[in-house]
């Protein structure tokens, strides 16, 4: 699952797809002020959640970002929670495949031919632009029309020119979004950086099916980087199965914002629906799709994404990827507008069929019937006399071909011949239906694939978690849920004092040994300033050692309330609070809180 | 850190560098029998620790492997332990940078020019071979000579031909080991898949230094995939600092196998040294290098690598990478021989200097002196009269150049001129030393870089963890330490029974909620067979529910001893046992064990 973060950058630098009408000037200006404040806090060298990649060089590559220390820790925690929420709780089969993929695999999947964007070139400078982006901008500015009414051929018709240079543009041409490379020293084997993590699962279907005891449905997952030369990569995870779901009842009562295809139009908005109702009335096509929509909703809200700013939008017919039969995106509202963060696609049997055909290895499942089933089959009986007269020496071949035809095929041949007026004599009759016994069904399973762009999700978590203290707008806070907070706890002496420091150091060391990331702060700055510093890093808890030799205080970040805890219990308590075993609310009865108002922890 | 596993395959498929004389036939044959047994167990579809990538295709790419479900879990646990052992316990600054790297970065680092292997081509078929491998094989077979006496030019001289085809070979030519690609649709920006994770840290030096409060030393780390077109990628992690180490005392008493450069020769072997002694006598050059050798030793043995089959070998002069000043490899003995798994390189200031020069951004540290230091500087005083006569109009330039020279430079010019017999007149005198005040020292810090090939380490963990029960060689066991075991616990009813099953299901659900990976087994097979199945997956604990309604048994994998634990305590106990808080030995007093001999859990 490393790293979708490859292109966290792209998320930030490129305008993500915005599916709503452009926001008005006023709103967009306040959005951009908010964004600037959050981004400044995140990228400032004292916080270093992330920073532009290769920035000491003018490398010709912009829009890539690195995660710095707290960003790495947050990402690692988000991925651990993802593993817990999906792999462990869903009993998924995880795989981990190479990023570099031989061409044949991506030919079968359709990526070599179809994974393209239409580009146009500035005919003077050679700079490239996405045809659909130029059209969209043109529509928004000049025509106020829906993009999907226009095809990219309209670029010439409307006289659209290159942005900035205003030079003429070439005709649109497809540009493949994969990074191409070659494998091995001979240069003969062409390969690509994988454009999605799903293919690695598909090509392992047979082994995974066997590992699962030849039983369907099963879920498989892969966490890892995908590489796209233009757009954001995603996390891949999928489920191979029929379309009912055994745990569907756990999610059907969830209610949240949904935005079905037919409801999308000018001035329309997402509405709150009960997931079970959306399945009943056919808005969501099947239980498995609904189950994963529900699980994704639960995952994102566990990360701290606001329920009011999260919706599930169904793709319009012309939006879907080449492999998708249906697709719902989890979109999160941030300062860029509603941003696609998770795609939940019904890929039907597209990929497994494609790999079966290309590799010649059947990727199918067998459903054994509990008892053999009797199946009626119509039988084709060639009229040998007529055929003998007509075909002479070839009669035998013709008879075999006719006998091998199934009913549907035979009817098609008949219809085709009749259309051409070529049916001059009766070559065969359809005999009486014959009863055959079948013991199993062989079929290519369907796939529901939720895929996560962890980079975008993390960026939205940053925005949704950010606030400033009401009494001072310079006091920035990230209200990360403890389970994903990069640093779980700061530890400090109340004032500079050798004994307090000794206690603080001992606690810090025990926290580290217990795997709880923490920061010891023995600087002499005021406790208020130290709290402010940890708030800006989103640290949920702060332990302070003072003149009480048996207890310390724990301060919670958002309420700023404190409790007193015995020193020998503090590590276990913070561990429980940060790995989700207990919440701050849970422990109120055991540890009476000292509300914030009564003490003064401001600078 | 995803994935060094990219090329776990290479580790297995290619013969890793073997630094010892070839093992004899007998030993090598028993090695290969052992390897076959381990590998069969690992790759069998019922276990699926790993499998060949893209195997449904004849893709032209061999030697790549995917991790299957238990392999993924193990890798994820190894990386979590790595994070705990290095990032958390060493307070390292973690970063996470893109895999695709613009060319300019890798020009500065030297990879574009120097990161090559010498190849030769089969002149008929075009197949490529590594020149050093062919020579090595030739030496081993024909000459019984040391490779390092030979250069690759000897290929022609010795008449070496292509293996298998026996065709003539081309002259050796350098082949760059990086995967090249291009970034963006114009194709104008050349990039490479990063060949190591270290460069991402170097180019972020300035920000990381600031984030660390402008203090040295600090350690930075990156976990991630590196891509090499021929050899195994590694995990990167490094430490930027001066060469003493504050925590050196924690490792100096460790004793283990070391193999210094000057001890390596025919018939010589590694010897057990105390790390502190190796530093004192100059075998290991500095404390920081020694500190990381010690930490790597502790990490590998925590994973279950046997102390007797782990050694630290110093690189010979002709083995080192282009950036290395010194290098020690952690080598693990497995069925392939002694295999390099961790490299601990002293990169001195090579990379930071290279990036400073290429980018024009100084990547330096400032050491402020507690009090200004007075420094004596010799002053060069040009003899203007003489120069005026000799150089006329150019006199001014010459005077300036002379004044700008420092003492060393001036002396060199003087020596050079004298050598050529060109000193005909005195152009300057060295004036009296002048006293200047200096307030800080500006310098390019040195870097010690331990880098881990997680794929190879995991493979060695597999081999070192594997054994068969003495009473039946079909009973395979992996004795993974609980902290890295892919599945921590199986849960089953003692026999098929509704009540037992209900208890087992409830415990399994609680374990999942607590983040403990577990497997519920309600099949009707004998308990002995179920134990055998979990042993083969390396599951350290098995919980069995029986007719006691308040307690269950926990069975430990290696001793096969059991304890009885109250149902409401079992989840916390297994959690503690598997995350390293308590060991099986620790809990003997609290929970008296029922030794294996007294009960019969065999099939």
Automatic annotation (TrEMBL), chains A, B:
Domain of life: Eukaryota
CDD domains referenced in this protein's UniProt entry, alphabetically: GlyRS-like_core
MF terms (GO), sorted A to Z: ATP binding; glycine-tRNA ligase activity
Compartmental location: Cytoplasm
UniProt EC number: 6.1.1.14
SUPFAM superfamilies: Class II aaRS ABD-related (SSF52954), Class II aaRS and biotin synthetases (SSF55681)
GO biological process: mitochondrial glycyl-tRNA aminoacylation
Domain Aminoacyl-transfer RNA synthetases class-II family profile: 63-470
Alphabetized UniProt keyword annotations: Aminoacyl-tRNA synthetase, ATP-binding, Cytoplasm, Ligase, Nucleotide-binding, Protein biosynthesis
Gene Ontology CC terms, in alphabetical order: mitochondrion
Protein family per UniProt: Belongs to the class-II aminoacyl-tRNA synthetase family.
Name used for this protein in its record: glycine--tRNA ligase
């Amino acid at each position: 699952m490393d790293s979708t973060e490859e292109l966290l950058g792209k998320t930030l630098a490129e305008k993500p797809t915005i599916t709503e009408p452009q926001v008005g000037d006023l709103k967009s200006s306040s959005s951009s002020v908010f964004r600037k404040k959050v981004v400044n806090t995140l990228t400032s060298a004292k916080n270093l959640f992330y920073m532009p990649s290769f920035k000491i060089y003018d490398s010709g590559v912009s829009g890539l970002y690195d995660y710095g220390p707290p960003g790495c820790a947050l990402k690692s925690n988000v991925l651990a929670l993802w593993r817990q929420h999906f792999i462990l709780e869903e009993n998924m089969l995880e795989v981990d495949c190479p990023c570099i993929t031989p061409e044949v695999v991506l030919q079968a999947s359709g990526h070599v031919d179809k994974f393209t964007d239409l580009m146009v070139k500035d005919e003077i400078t050679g700079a490239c632009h996405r045809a659909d982006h130029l059209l969209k901008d043109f529509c928004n500015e000049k025509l106020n029309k829906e993009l999907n009414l226009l095809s990219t051929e309209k670029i010439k018709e409307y006289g659209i020119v290159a942005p900035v240079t205003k030079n003429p543009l070439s005709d649109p041409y497809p540009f493949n979004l994969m990074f191409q490379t070659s494998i091995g020293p001979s240069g003969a084997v062409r390969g690509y950086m994988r454009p999605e993590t799903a293919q690695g699962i598909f090509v392992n279907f047979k082994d995974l099916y066997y590992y699962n005891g030849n039983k369907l449905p099963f879920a498989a997952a892969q966490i890892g980087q995908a590489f796209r030369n233009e757009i954001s990569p995603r996390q891949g995870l999928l489920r191979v199965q029929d379309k009912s779901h055994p745990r569907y009842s756990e999610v059907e009562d969830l209610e949240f914002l949904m935005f079905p295809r037919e409801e999308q139009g000018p001035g329309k908005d997402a509405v709150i629906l009960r997931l079970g109702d959306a399945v009943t009335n056919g808005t969501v096509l099947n239980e498995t799709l609904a189950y994963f929509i529900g699980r994704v909703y639960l995952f994102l809200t566990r990360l701290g994404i606001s329920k009011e700013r999260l919706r599930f939008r169904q793709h319009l017919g012309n939006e879907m990827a080449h492999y998708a039969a249906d697709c719902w995106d989890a979109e999160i509202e941030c300062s860029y507008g509603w941003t696609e963060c998770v795609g939940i696609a019904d890929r039907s049997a597209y990929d497994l069929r494609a790999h079966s055909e290309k590799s010649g290895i059947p990727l199918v499942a067998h459903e054994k019937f509990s008892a053999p089933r009797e199946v009626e089959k119509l039988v084709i009986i060639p009229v040998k006399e007529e055929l003998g007269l007509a075909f002479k020496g070839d009669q035998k071949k013709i008879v075999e071909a006719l006998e091998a035809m199934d009913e549907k095929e035979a009817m098609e041949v008949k219809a085709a011949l009749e259309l051409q007026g070529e049916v001059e004599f009766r070559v065969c009759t359809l005999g009486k239906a014959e009863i055959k016994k079948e013991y199993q069904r062989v079929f290519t399973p369907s796939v529901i694939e939720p895929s996560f762009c962890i980079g975008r999700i993390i960026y939205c978590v940053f925005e949704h978690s950010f606030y400033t203290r009401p009494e001072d707008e310079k006091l920035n806070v990230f209200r990360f849920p403890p389970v994903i907070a990069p640093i779980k706890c700061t530890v400090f002496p109340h004032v500079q004092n050798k004994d307090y420091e000794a206690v603080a150091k001992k606690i810090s060391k025990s926290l580290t040994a217990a795997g709880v990331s923490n920061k010891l702060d023995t600087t002499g700055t005021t406790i208020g300033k130290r709290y402010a510093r940890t708030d800006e890093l989103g640290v949920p808890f702060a332990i302070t050692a003072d003149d009480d030799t048996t207890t310390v205080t724990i301060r919670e970040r958002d309420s700023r309330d404190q409790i007193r805890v015995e020193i020998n219990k503090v590590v276990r308590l913070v561990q429980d609070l940060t790995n989700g075993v207990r919440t701050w609310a849970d422990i109120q009865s055991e540890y009476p809180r000292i509300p914030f108002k009564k003490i003064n922890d401001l600078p």
